[in-house]
Specification:
heterodimer, A: 303 residues, mainly alpha, 2 domains, two-stranded antiparallel ribbon, 57% helix, globular, B: 143 residues, 8 helices
Chain lengths: 303, 143
């Protein structure tokens, strides 16, 4: 029963993904159209970066990264005698596990410097619109693998886990917009919404490292990382060390450059490890001359 | 159990609520609709299943499993899976088409930040054009 059911589940999620892709395409067209209506250029430089970084996401993942991810998780799954069957009645469990997997992966992407160097690429957009969905990062599969391995060892089927943890949180695609204001309080408490996700993309001290959820906010409530959008604190989008450049390769390498510099300068092996796995902004920082292409907001964050 | 009653009829019956919620969201005067009854039968809670139903319906249209015409979808699915499933799928197509053609624009206008609603009005014809183009393409390519 299990393998045919997994096959059906994968097919259903593929169909769901194609439908979601059509809706994303409409959102992207609407974004440029509305910018034009509002008297702005339909395509900004930042939007061009977002489009250029798109192949690092669904294309690269679809071609080989997800296959590597499933292969790695399957190795772990085969090591354990535990099995959580994939059937109709366990789908809610897989759904919640997928949400947890996304939460943990996402939190690691923000709270460990080595992963933040990659994930910050998605967050370095200073405009919060539908095209930010396209701003993908090259190494997400690495920390997906590391953070989802424990769930595979607990017996969660790797294919079912991956399709749940990647496809269901894709709902937040439709949340990257400022054109929708606040929704019902109960809805914002339970679900990722445009305002919840705006908090996540903001670099205000109040909002930093908050709202990691994929579709639901339940794991944020469970682990104390939920933050609602406060009327008195408008979100400032971007990252604390904001690159301002016309070169997408500089955007890609931005935080890796700082990571490498701090790693080289760290005096001991312990400090080097802390630079890699410590929280961004809380680890050793080598002295450096200010970069005119970088806006440093970190002093505001520390305040 | 009542003889001749198909328990799967619960599916299309339940689908009436998301349809009512969609109609409410698509209606320009929805803000004035604050009664308890309307909240019960057409409140935002009933939009939750649409997170899955709308993308799934579009994917199934692309796949050729269902048609943009609800009556064709009904006929196709009723043949293999029974009347209740056919009716459920036809209602899902109607709901998905509302979301393709009109509802997102109306939701966007209603929840627009203060002072932005006038600029955003153009999103209605855009919504109709994009959704209409998709449905026409699926309809003509799928024939």
């Amino acid at each position: 029963m299990e393998e045919p059911f997994v096959g059906e589940l994968v097919k259903a999620i593929q169909i769901f993904g194609f439908g979601g892709g059509i809706l994303l395409l409409f959102c992207l067209i609407a974004e440029s159209f509305l910018r034009w209506r509002e008297g702005e250029r339909p395509f900004s430089r930042e939007m061009a970066h977002n489009y250029l970084l798109f192949p690092l996401g669904p294309l690269m993942e679809g071609i080989f990264a997800n296959a590597l991810l499933i292969a790695g998780l399957t190795l772990a799954w085969q090591l354990t005698p535990l099995r959580i069957p994939v059937t109709w009645w366990t789908l809610p469990v897989y759904f919640l596990a997928g949400e947890l997997a996304f939460y943990v992966f996402h939190r690691a992407g923000h709270e460990m410097r080595i992963f933040w160097a990659d994930h910050s690429i998605h967050h370095s957009a200073e405009h919060y619109d539908f095209t930010v969905n396209l701003r993908h990062t090259p190494f997400a599969t690495v920390y997906r693998m590391m953070t989802w391995m424990p769930l595979a060892l607990l017996g969660f089927h790797p294919v079912a886990l991956v399709v749940m943890a990647i496809n269901i949180p894709a709902f937040q695609t439709f949340c990257h917009t400022q054109r929708i204001g606040r929704l019902s309080p109960w809805f914002e408490w339970l679900f990722v919404t445009p305002s919840n996700h705006a908090v996540h993309h903001a670099c205000n001290p109040l909002y930093i490292d908050r709202n990691y959820g994929g579709l639901l906010m339940i794991w944020d409530h469970a682990f104390g990382t939920y933050q609602r959008l406060e009327e008195h604190e408008p979100p400032v989008f971007g990252i604390t060390r904001q690159p301002r450049t016309g070169n997408p390769f500089v955007v890609l390498a931005h935080e890796f450059r700082y990571l490498g510099r701090d790693l080289r300068g760290a005096p001991t092996w312990g400090t080097k490890l802390h630079v890699l796995f410590g929280k961004p902004g809380k680890t050793y920082q080598a002295d450096h001359a200010p970069d005119p292409r970088v806006v440093d907001r970190s002093s505001n964050v520390a305040a | 159990m009542v003889a001749g009653f198909d328990p799967l009829l619960v599916l299309p019956a339940a689908m009436l609520f998301p349809l009512a919620a969609t109609l409410r969201q698509s209606w320009p005067g929805a803000k004035a609709c604050t009664g308890v009854v309307s909240a019960l039968i057409a409140g935002p809670f009933w939009l939750l299943p649409l997170i899955f139903i709308v993308p799934m319906s579009l994917g199934l249209m692309l796949d050729g499993t269902i048609s943009p015409l609800p009556q064709v979808t009904y006929a196709r699915l009723a043949q293999g899976h029974g009347n209740a499933v056919g009716l459920f799928a036809a209602l899902a197509v109607i709901v998905a088409e509302f979301w393709l053609l009109l509802t997102p624009a109306m939701v966007m206008l209603r929840h627009a930040p203060p002072g932005k609603a006038a600029e955003l009005k153009a999103v209605i014809p855009l919504n109709i054009a994009l959704g209409g183009a998709f449905l026409a393409a699926v309809f003509y390519l799928g024939r």
